[in-house]
C-alpha cells in the first residue's frame, strides 16, 4: 500500500506540473472494448513509465457503448488525476471507431495506443517511443516475442499473419498487439473503419510512411487461450481479402474486373463456338440445349464486369488529383 501511495504521489506531482503546460507530447488512447482489466491499475502502471520517460502526456479512455459500466471507475480515476479524458460512445461501434474518436480528441503530436487489458509489460513502452522520438519512424508497432500464451493462440496467429503476408507481400508478426506509437500525420491521412485498425501498419506503409516493428515482452496476464466465434474468423478472412483488393486494385480496378470479365467472356465464347461447330457439322439443334444458356450468361456477366472496371478507372481518373498515395519526409530549399 505504501508503495502504491508513493507511485500515486509521483504521478500526481508530474501530472500537476505538466497539465499546467499547454503543450502535450503524448496522447495515450485506450479503446475500452471487449477485454477489460483493472483500468486504474493500467493507468497507474503506464502513467508511471511515461512520467519516467520525461514527456508530458494525457490519457483518453474511449468507452464503447456496450461497456459503460466502467464509467464509474474512470470518473473516480479522473477525480484523482487531472490528465484524463473520458469519451463514451452512444452504442457499440467497435475498436476501429473507438480509436478514431480517440485520435480526434487527442492533441499531442505523438499518439500512443494501448489495450484496455495487460497485453504487454508496461516497461516496454520506452522502446516503442524511442522509435518515433529518436529514430524518427512515423509508426512503431509492437510484437509480443517470445510468446508465452497457449499453442492454439500462436497457431491461429501464425495462420492469420501468413495469409496476410501472402496476399499483401508485407511481413508483420503481431498486428493484433495494441501497443503502438504513431505520429499525428499518420492518423490524419490513414482512415480507419470496420475492423481495419489491425492493418494500420500495412495501410500506413502503403501511404509511404516509415513503419518499425519492435519486439516487446508479453504480459503474464495475456496467456489465456482465445477461441472466437466462427463469424469472427470469417470476418477476419474478409478483412484480409478487403486489404488485398485495396493493396492491389484500388488504383487499377480494370486489372481486377477486366481480368475476371475477360475470363468469363472467353469461357462463354468457347461454349458458343463449340455449339456453332456442332450445329454446322449436323449433330442436331442447339436451341434447346442448356449449355447454350450458360455460354450466353457467361458472356453477358463478363461484359458487365469489364464495364464495372472501366467505370472504376474513369472515377479514379477524374478524382486522381485528390488521391494522395505518398508521404513527403521533408523539403530542403
Q: How would you characterize the overall build of this protein?
A:
The protein is an alpha/beta fold and 333 residues long. It is 51% helix and 12% strand. The chain is built from eleven helices and seven strands. The chain has helices at 2-19, 39-53, 71-80, 95-105, 125-133, 151-168, 184-189, 200-206, 230-249, 253-280, 290-318, and strands at residues 26-32, 57-63, 84-88, 110-113, 139-144, 180-183, 211-216. A seven-stranded mixed sheet has the order 3-2-1-4-6-5-7, with helices on both faces. Strand 1, helix 2 and strand 2 form a beta-alpha-beta unit. Helix 6 runs parallel beside helix 9. It is elongated, with a radius of gyration of 26 Å. The termini are far apart.
Q: What letter string, H or E per element, gives the SSE order?
A: HEHEHEHEHEHEHHEHHH
Mean pLDDT across the residues is 88
Morphology: elongated
**Strand share of the residues?**
5-15%
Oligomer: single chain
Structural class label: alpha/beta
Strand runs, count? 7
* Strands side by side in the biggest sheet: 3-2-1-4-6-5-7
